[in-house]
Amino acid sequence: MTVTDPGFDELTAPLRAELLAHCYRMSGSAADAEDLLQETYLRAWKAFHRFEGRSSVRTWMYTIATNVCVTAATARRVLPVGLGGEPSNPLEPVVPSPEVPWLQPLPDAALGDPGEHVVAREGIGLAMVAALQVLPAKQRAALILRDVLGFSAAETAEALGTTVASANSALQRARASIGDGAPQDGRRVVELSEREREVWEEVCAAFERHDIDGVVRILAADATWEMPPIPGWYRGAEQIGMLSRTQCPAQVAGDLRMIPVVCNGMPAAAMYLRDGDIWLPFQLDVLTFTDGALTHVSAFLDPAALFALAGLPPTLTA
C-alpha cells in the first residue's frame, strides 16, 4: 500500500508500532500481525476522508484495527505447554505438527527504536499473549483495550462497535477467565539483574561450544523446554540436556552460532546452524528468568521470517 495523503501519514504513522503490538496481542502471530496491520492502514486510508475528528485519531485507528482482528480471528494459537499433555520423553523422536496454529514470538526490533513506543511494549510477554488466546476475540479485545492500553469504557465500546454495557460485560467475562490467574511472564530485558545478563551470555556461549553439560548447569533444576511446531515439551535440566544430546543436529563446537536479541520484551537468542561454510537460521529461543534462574525456554523452529522481523541476516559466514 502506498499512502499519498501527507495528512494521513502525519497523523497515523506515529501509531504504527503500538498498532502492530495490538494486532499481535489479538492474533498471537507476528506474521499475521504484520498482515493485519497492513489491512488496518489500508482501511483507514480509504476511510480517511470521512474521519471527522469526533474521536481521537488513536481511538479511530484502534477501532479499525480491532475490527480487522476480530473479523480475522481463527483458531486460538497455543504453545506446547498449553496443550495440557504430560512432559515428553527426550529419547523419543520429535515430530512436528504444522497443522496446529502455534503462537509466535514478536521480535522487539519490529517495533522500532527501543527507546520509543512504550505502549507497544506493554502486555506482550509470551505467557500473557498465550493466555489472551484462550478468550473469544471480543473478550480478548475488551481486556486488551481496558487493562493493557487503559482505554475508557466508552472508548472500548466504540472500538468494539457495541454499547458500554456490552463492552463491560465482555471485560468482566474476560477477567473471570484469566484475570488474576493470568500467568506471569519472565523478567523483561530492562529488568534483568547483572547476574541474569551474565547467564544470558553464558547459555549462548555454552551452545556455541557444544557444551551441553554447561547448558544443564545453567538451567534451573525444574526448567521446562518447548519448541513449536514440535507438540511435546520437556521438564527438568537433565531431561533437556538429554534432548539436546540426542535430538539436536549440532554435534561439535562451532556448529551453532548465537546472537542475543529481544523478543516480547524478554531476553532471547537467535540460533544459527552450520550448513557447510555458512550458518542458517535454526531456532529462536525466548528465555524466561524467574527469581534469578533460567526456568523456561521457548525455542521456535523454522524461524526465517522471525529472524527477518528481528533485523537479523539470513545467513552468517565465517
Can you characterise this structure?
It is a single chain. The protein has 318 residues and is an alpha+beta fold. Helix content is 42%, strand content 18%. It has twelve helices and seven strands. Strands 1, 2, 3, 4, 5, 6 and 7 form a seven-stranded mixed sheet that branches. Strand 1 (219-227) and strand 2 form a beta hairpin. Helix 6 crosses helix 8 (164-177) and helix 9 (194-208) packs antiparallel against helix 10. The longest helix has 18 residues, at 30-47. The chain starts with 5 loop residues before the first helix and ends with a strand.
Number of helical stretches of at least 4 residues:
12
Please state roughly what percent of the residues sit in beta strands, choosing from under 5%, 5-15%, 15-25%, 25-35%, 35-45% or over 45%: 15-25%
Q: What is the mean pLDDT?
A: 91
Low-confidence stretches are none
Helix content: 40-55%
Largest sheet: 7 strands, mixed
Distance between the termini: 38 Å
Structural category:
alpha+beta
How many strand units?
Answer: 7
Shape field: globular
Indicate the radius of gyration in whole angstroms: 21 Å
Summarize the structure.
The protein is 42% helix and 18% strand.
Please describe the topology of this protein.
Blueprint: H1 6-12, H2 16-27, H3 30-47, H4 57-72, H5 126-132, H6 137-148, H7 153-160, H8 164-177, H9 194-208, H10 212-218, E1 219-227, E2 230-235, H11 237-247, E3 256-263, E4 266-275, E5 278-290, E6 293-301, H12 304-309, E7 316-317
Parallel strand pairs: 1-6
Antiparallel strand pairs: 1-2, 3-4, 4-5, 5-6, 5-7
